From TrEMBL:
Pfam families: Retrotran_gag_3. Residues 19-52 form the Retrotransposon Copia-like N-terminal domain. This is UBN2_3 domain-containing protein. InterPro entries: Copia-like_N.
Amino acid sequence: PTFPSSSSLSHAHHFLFIYLNDKNYLLWRTQLVPFLRGQKLLGFVDGSNPCPPLTILVDDHTNPEPNPAATLWQDQDQLLFSLLISSLIEFIIPTVVRLPTFHEVWR
């Protein structure tokens, strides 16, 4: 899959004006979903764009090599993860601190 450049996400947190707290989920979601849809990243939200296999076989070698598509996916996921964490009010962050992916935090 083709992902937006990392530069299109690296400053996205500057556009977030509503931070998620225990009373404003719909407003917060309304702010983030159009941005993610416009960046063609909703698959990270709903899980329809899972991480590709971490390794691949090249030229039928028996030793798998790192999959560049998985590396790209992980990089994109972590940028989105950072964006999501930056949109949370402080007292919510401890509830998601151990979750490894954007999709798990969103859920």
